[in-house]
Amino acid sequence: MRNRNKTAMVIGIAVVAAALGLVAPDLARTASQQTEWNALKNGRDIYMTACAACHGGNGRGNSQSSVAFETPLPDFSDCNFTSREGAADWFQIARLGGPVRGFHQMMPAFGEALTDAQLKAAVAHIKRFCAEDKWPDGILNLPKALVTGKAYPEDEYMFTYSMNGGSPWMFEGKFVFEKRIGARHQVEVAIPVVVKELERQKADGTTQTRFGEGVGDIALGYKFNVFHSLKSLTIMSLSTEVILPSGDEADRIGKGFFRIEPFLTLGQLIPALGFLQFQAGAELSTKPNKGAHELFWRGVFGHSFAKGGYGRTWSPMIEVLGAKEMEDDTKIEWQVLPELQVTLNQRQHIRFCLGARIPVTDFDRDNIQYMAYLLWDWFDGGFTDGWRGAL
Ligand code: HEC
């Protein structure tokens, strides 16, 4: 049999087996074919032999009629898609098959047919189908910390919660919508809803507690990725946020004036050790008599662990937060925020994070804020996609 026929046969068997729902399409190989595969070294040759029958020589995916299954094939030449996936994730998909990330089992497991080095070379070849280097690579998309901003441009929905246990009690829920535009831009809207304990002095001198609630100060943001490098594993962006006085000022749910917040964000991967993220900027008040300008700086150190390199990912992080009003006699406010982020599903595009923001300057247990978020990276799939299978 000639090589092409053999490949067609192998894929035929895999497709029939998968269609019957019996096994994931693990490519059945003849001994001579395995010997042939063992000899492959170059990423392109490996790709052409093992992947191109479905993904196409140009990476765009063969037509449904030629592959004889209905699961749509991704277009690896689309930079907007290919750049944002990390090579390590794709290596695991190629090694263990689509279901490891909640994809269809029609994407076979090659872990027995090809060595890790061969699979890494094939994935590196796939990554090269995107020829434009203006797109920051997905490996630089570091876990989001609870407070410190990220440098990577995102397509995300995020629901954040923060509550302070003491008195006066306060709860803030915030809905954040982030939309990436092209390779390097991102726009953002953040809408907070606040419930707050208020104390009122009555005419007879007694105090009475009531609750104030409502939409807080809405923020509109724009982020521009100025630098990214796969060599130094660094990413840097500049952002500006405009904070609107939409919250009720009398109930102190809003500050009552416009603020402009320019800041820089930086992400740095340190192989084997973890990652660092940094954010620094200013909150400029348009009414300095009502609220002073403020400087802030925030740093995160974290590390991601995944069982076997492919299971549920746990990312413990610690943030150090500093802020100071731009007036001579005010001191620096420091806070620390230990937290844990975990991926909830197999696709890893739904994540949860929990932490406690602890004041260091003037420590007061009442002022510890308990924070959490639920994050949905909607570019990677719908909310209910990618949950199937065991982690
Ligand atoms: C039998 C056909 C077939 C072969 C052969 C095949 N794939 Fe796939 N692959 C698929 C299908 C179908 C999907 C889409 C699965 C989905 O969307 O649920 C896919 C998806 C992928 C993805 C996931 C992309 C994403 O959405 O994040 C990667 C990575 C991938 N394939 C790599 C490879 C590599 C590397 C090879 C060769 C070593 C290969 N594939 C060979 C059918 C195949």
What features would you describe in this structure?
With 391 residues, this protein is an alpha+beta fold. Helix content is 17%, strand content 37%. It is built from 7 helices and 14 strands. It has a 12-stranded antiparallel barrel. A hairpin with a 3-residue loop joins strand 2 (170-181) and strand 3 (185-201). Helix 3 (43-55) crosses helix 7 (116-127) and helix 6 packs across helix 7 (116-127). Bound molecules: heme C. Heme C binds next to helix 1, helix 3, helix 6 and helix 7.
Structural class: alpha+beta
**How would you describe the shape?**
elongated
Number of helices: 7
Number of strands: 14
| CATH architecture label of the largest domain | Beta Barrel
Residue share in helices? 10-25%
What keywords describe this structure?
single chain, 391 residues, alpha+beta, Cytochrome Bc1 Complex, Chain D, domain 2, Porin, twelve-stranded antiparallel β-barrel, 17% helix, elongated, binds heme C
